[in-house]
Amino acid sequence: MIKHTMKALGVAAIALAVAACSEKADEPKEAIKIAVAGPFSGPLAQFGEMQISGAKKAVADLNAAGGLLERPVELVELDDVCEPKQATTVANQVVSAEISFVIGHLCSSSTLPASDVYEDAGVVMITPASTNPEITERGYEYVFRTVGRDDQQGPFAAGVVKSLAPTNVAVVHDKSAYGEGLASQVNENLKSMGVNVVMYEAITAGEADYSPLIAKLKAESIDLMFFGGYDPELAKIMRQGRDGGWTGQFVGGDGVSNNKIVEAAGEAADGLIATQPKSYDGEASNAALVAEFEALGVNASDTFVLPSYAAVMALSEAITAAGTADTAAVKDALRKQVFSTAVGNIQWDGKGDIVGGENTFAAYLWKKDGTAELKTF
Amino acid sequence: MSHLLEATDLKMQFGGLLAVNNVSLHVDDKEIVSVIGPNGAGKTTVFNCLTGFYQPTDGIILYKGEPIHGLPGHIISRKGVVRTFQHVRLFKEMTVIENLLVAQNRHLNTSLLAGLLKTKGYRKAESEAMDRAEYWLKQVDLLDKANWLAGNLAYGQQRRLEIARCMVTEPGLIMLDEPAAGLNPKETSDLDGLISHLRDEFNLAVLLIEHDMKLVMDISDRIYVVNQGAPLAQGTPEEIQNNPDVIKAYLGED
Amino acid sequence: MADQFYLFIQQLFNGFTLGSAYALIAIGYTMVYGIIGMINFAHGEVYMISSYIGFIVIAALMMMGVDSAFLLITGAMIVAITLTSVYGFSIERVAYRPVRGQNRLIALISAIGMSIFLQNYVRVGQSSRDIAMPPLVEGGWTFGNPDGFEATLTYMRVVIWVITIAAMIALTLFVTRTKMGRACRACSEDLGMTNLLGINTNFIIALTFAIGAAMAAVAGVLLGTFYGVINPYVGFILGLKAFTAAVLGGIGSIPGAMLGGMLLGIAEAMTAGYLSAEYKDVVSFGLLILVLLFRPYGILGKPEVEKV
Prior knowledge:
Chain B is an alpha/beta fold and about 250 residues long. Chain B has helices spanning about 45-50, 75-80, 95-100, 110-115, 120-140, 155-165, 185-200, 215-220, 235-240, 245-250, and strands at about 5-15, 15-25, 30-35, 60-65, 65, 80-85, 175, 205-210, 220-225, 230-235.
């Protein structure tokens, strides 16, 4: 009696399985969702712009070529306003919507808490912008980036400063994870290079008045100020600096390196030197891509456009290589090969950093007409 | 016969407490009418209803035949009804003369532009207001203190200033809430003279709440007695003095 | 030695400029508190809106070809003061009057809600990014030691001081010499009695909000032009500091607001200049606590008589 029932159950089970399989074959393929998380509103939305336009084009290109694993690719845009609390909320949303891939976040102060959630849930996260070293120092397996780290940008920036041969240097930061991180790197490297750092100070972002700071720069005979932080703040400082009669050199990191700073500071921004991930828009191999971006009204030389594009493309290659959208397999696939991307050849190491990341930074000289020139020092 | 002020069946309810229960009274031109009663009888509440300080729960109030119940305080005041409170409510941070000027604001041309440009009409009104203020300061014998801060006057002087401030609004009826409180016998007798003088010379009616029985009996044409929010008696001073209910309720309490 | 002196002078200049901003905005808080006993938490946003109006007017005038800085700033000032006063007036009507006489907590929440509404109303209309304007008035005087420390006094700073002082004088004259001003003073002493003397106190209250808004508008145009960058959130911190200044000087007292604003501005500039920008807020609020310990009603404040 029982044997019969078992047999019947077994047959039923197999029948169901077959039916399920054939149903799958008839259904339209479910899309592979990629979330893009960054500041799409708020004072740093210009960076989010870069991030999303790179990712959107990549997804469009993928779909034009037939999708991924024969499935369409869908982009989901999530705004974290560059606020850590919002970033955690976004991360939870990603997980509960069962999205397995994230291009983001942008600000290191967002990427850090969000990555905790992603690692826990096994969501693959590739950030096209966050440079704080700690992101990849926690033994996480699902976290990657397509830019270098601040402990690489720091020494590079310090080198730039040293080659300008200043007498007295001030290092100022905005207390953010990114800003303070970069500034402390620069500070330490400058000291070990023998550069005279006279001031190391913090400002509070959002304040209107920096004239006491400017007065201090003058009083201490500072001739070069390095700023770890974002462009809205540095724009105000530069403007008030020139107004207040300080004629020294301003140097900053990737957080200030975009043309919004010229819009905000006007003439005062002329001569700013900023380090950032190298811009690959000049590479011959990217010529066609850059033209396509231009046709869409996107400036491919903006810092995070190509790293974002590259992140999506590398991810898609890894998924194809792994043959599945299962994140455990994909994360391994991301480490198994060298990817030829719009930002050069990328090989990811065990931590999720680019091998040879110290060579991914460059310095640019900003001019009052809003253009930037690559400078070698 | 039409009265200057006529209140019929006034009621004031605060939640569960019926503070004023069917009080009716009237005041005629050039009359001095007093409202007396034990403490907490609801007399001040009646005043508050009559002046729009409170909105009465029920009842009809007519001033010069026009209904005024339910109107906002500043409108009632502009019609010619003005009052004082048990405690002096002068503007202590302003000077004596400024207290009298601000009470005349409604007489001045209200246009801000006229003020900024100092048009002729504005200046004329300002100078009239100043004249009126000076006149009344003379009447209450405070002219030499015109530029003092109101808060620096002696108590008796402050009381007189309050009355001057009332008069400067050219009222038809003034309502005084315990004007003799805190005054010594000489000051009270002066007050007596002042109130009578105002009534005689300025076509004024006076409604008075008072505890000082000498003043009440001396000055009033009629008296209303109120006890626990309800009317108890009304009549001339002689009638009231001889009313057994009133005597029982409270006369002798001073 | 001389260098130290010039540095001190420079920080003093910085302090006066910041102090002017705080003083102008603090006046709004103090006048409203004086008359209805409530804190207008939406006042910082009034400042922010006036900055935006200023920018828009200047941009429009520039497009029409107006070049002179004097005309641009004057034009912006006139429009901003007018429109912002209307905003101030309507804040009172929408957020305060309907809940007057009810629990104070309700008014507080209503005001905070208004503040959030205005921030986001501007954010949606204008985007939350910084908007910038090129400097209108450039140049200034320098003096001091070219080899050591040179202090700069930009013309724009002087413009700010002059206009601020003029505004304060105008306000003081208004309050002490005009009949409306008398009515405002009477209302802030005793609202009920003033009403019973025939003055429409609702109108005076609305006027008070409008005047406070006009003062904030002066600050908004001047500082917007001076710093050159605005976003929907600039009102928040500035409003908070200005409120602190009003309490410091004695809330309810107009001279107190002016004094408190100046003191706070100078204290902040000195701290940021001699210690570090990080301690600026610590010192400002520490000063507030210290003053309140010894003078609980603020420097020029008076104990409040319970308004019957």
